[in-house]
Amino acid sequence: MKRKIVTSYILILLVGTLTTGIFSFSFLRNSYFANMEEKLLSYGQLITDSLLMEEESGDLRNFFWLTQKFAQRTRVRVTLLDESGKVLADSADNSIIFINQQMQPEVQLAMRGEIRSIQRTDDTTGVNSMFLALPPVHLQGQQMIIRLSDPIEDYMQENLVFMKYVFMSILLGLIIAMIVGLWNVGKITGPIHVLSEAASQLASAKFSTRIHIRTRDELEELAGTFNHMAERLETMISQIQAKNIQLDAMLSGMTDGVMAVDASGSLLMMNRELQRLLPSKMNLTIGSHYQETLGELPELAHLIDETIVHQQALEEEVQFEQQHQPRVLRIKSSLMRDPGRNQQIIGVFLLVQDMTEIRKLENLRNDFVANVTHELRTPLTLISGFVETLQQDHELDEDEQKTALSIIELETERLKRLINDVLTLSEIENMQAGGETKKFNALLEIREVMEWLNPLAQEKSIAVTLEPHEEAVLIEANPGWFRQMLANLLENAIKYTPESGWVTLKVQVADHVLHVMIQDNGIGVPDEEKELIFQRFYRANRNRSREVGGTGLGLTIVQHIVSEMKGTIKVSTPESGGSLFCVCLPGVVNSQSLNESS
Ligand code: ADP
User: Fold this and answer.
1) In this structure, is residue 164 part of a structural domain?
2) Are residues 584 and 479 in the same domain?
3) DSSP structural state of residue 536
4) Is 524 a pocket residue for ligand 1 (Cβ < 6 Å)?
5) Best mutation site among 417, 462, 492, 534 for ligand 1, i.e. most ligand atoms within 8 A of its Cβ?
6) DSSP letters of 565-580?
7) For residue 492, how far is its CA from the centre of ligand 1 (angstroms)?
8) What biological-process terms (Gene Ontology) are attached (predicted)?
9) Which of 85, 285, 407, 543 is the least crowded, having the fewest Cβ atoms under 10 Å away?
10) Which of ligand 1's atoms lies nearest the C-alpha of 557?
11) Ligand 1 binding pocket mutation candidate from 375, 378, 425, 525 (most atoms within 8 A of CB)
């Protein structure tokens, strides 16, 4: 820019000075030649007048003498020619007498009656001169032409000197103008450079850029406006960024997936949850068209289409497989409208909710209700059947009546147990994590449960033993749940062990984790059912299990309790046969705490 300004500055100056020089030069030249022409003309007329006067007075001397006299007086060269152009006399050079000058342009002009000066080189002197010839006058019986000439060589010399001065002053002017121009241009371009630097910094998102220019002119004003603009821009950008951060935080904090497409169908925004919920094969990228992106889930693209076509919010449930697991999504679409007066549709907004767990729970609940109903129906049918028999058949003997009553009692007991187990299960499920905890000695609880189930074991002559453990095991947990868990496992071990069998309990502590192992030499759990026995109402060895009168909820309750206590349970078949249930529970308090608490 600086170069451009300086170049144009110099060009203007050059053109200005050159035009002034050329004009003044040609003006001076023209006025010089005009003056000279006038001088020659007036001298010529004076000479003509005096020649005419001298002829009248009869005093006309010879032409040589006259031309000499006139030349002395006027200091110009005077030549007298006859009408044919022959030289009669010449004040400077007599050698040209009788040489015909007819072809000289000034003589030609004079012969035509025109008075105009001619500049040309004098043939005799070889000097550049101005010639002026007057139209012919009648003298001494013949037509005569008076020609005057004066060298202009000196003038040309003067002109050269003048031109030299003009050129030098132009050069000097240019140098000065260049220095001053550069200095001045620097004063303008310097702040402009600062401004342009600041503008490019602003363009590269450095919004804290400010400039300080003290030129006390429009540039300073411009700098002020720039700073004001940068300040406003910085505030606006930081506000937008803060809003974006809030929006991002809101979107990523949402437990539902959200997505928006604009009127042209390009993906405007989405959150992380949406990417987690939709099939992993989908390549969701901002700016891509929804019909290409949602190809893996055509129902979703279709819902967007329908929303646009019908211009109303819609809802749909979509099912697909994600890593071999079924996934259910509820998708709600709504129209995004321009809040302005025309309420134009500017896109479609989608809310994607994960319904997999809800649907799974609903299925579980339905299965559970069906199972409970089924489990209730069998004992109730038996009870009502025997009650009917007792009421209607009066011929039953005492033994038959006793058998009927004992069956009614057994089935009532089964019903009670079923209802109790259902209640316990729902209690555990509804309880806050871990329930109410306190520190207690797990060994004491184990012994208590053993004692409580002793009659059942004695009934079947099963030996229940606890491998000796020297110290007390203080654990922080819910004692009620702990007892329930142990009772279920021990009761199962006794139930599924034939008469005269054995059940052994072992307790170990490692890294604050309590390991309880309950082993029996009973019927055992087949390998393919080891995972399944923890499901509600599942019974391995179906017929045998029903015989022993289980509800199928005991191990479900155990697993719930263990997972609430952040522990694990595993079932295996020991080499000696039967089954081995291992429960690991964290929360064992160290010996110091044991001393403190005791
Ligand atoms: P149930 O009330 O039928 O005992 P559970 O949930 O306690 O229900 O147990 C589920 C099934 O697991 C039982 O029906 C039984 O087939 C099997 N089972 C549980 N404990 C044992 C065990 N110690 N030995 C063999 N099978 C067992």
Assistant:
1) no
2) yes
3) T
4) yes
5) 492
6) TT-EEEEE--TTSSEE
7) 6
8) cellular response to phosphate starvation
9) 543
10) 6
11) 525
**190: in domain:** no
> In this structure, are 489 and 370 located in the same domain?
no
Whether 439 is in a domain gets the answer: yes
* 540 CA: nearest ligand 1 atom: 16
Residues 557 and 562: their CA atoms lie apart, in Å, by 9
Q: Give me the residue label for tokens 């003044």.
A: 24
Query: Please, which residues have CB within 8 angstroms of residue 8's CB and are 6 or more apart in sequence?
Result: none
Contact 67, 91 (CB under 8 A): yes
Which of 253, 285, 320 is the endpoint of a domain? 253
- How many degrees, rounded to 5, is the angle at CA 369 between CA 364 and CA 373? 145
In a structure prediction context, what are the per-residue pLDDT tens digits for the chain, which is 598 residues long?
A: 677 777 787 788 788 878 887 888 788 888 888 998 999 999 999 988 888 888 887 766 677 888 888 889 888 999 989 888 888 888 887 777 878 888 999 999 999 999 999 999 988 888 889 999 999 998 878 888 999 999 887 777 887 887 888 788 878 888 887 888 788 888 878 888 888 899 999 889 888 889 888 888 888 888 899 999 999 999 999 999 999 899 888 888 888 999 999 989 999 999 989 888 888 777 788 899 988 888 888 899 999 999 999 999 999 999 988 888 889 999 999 999 988 878 888 999 999 999 999 998 898 888 888 888 888 898 899 999 999 988 888 888 888 889 989 999 999 998 998 999 999 988 888 876 656 889 999 999 999 999 999 999 999 999 999 998 777 899 999 999 999 999 999 999 999 999 999 999 999 998 889 999 999 999 999 999 999 999 988 887 766 656 666 788 999 999 999 998 999 999 999 999 999 999 999 988 864 444 444 4
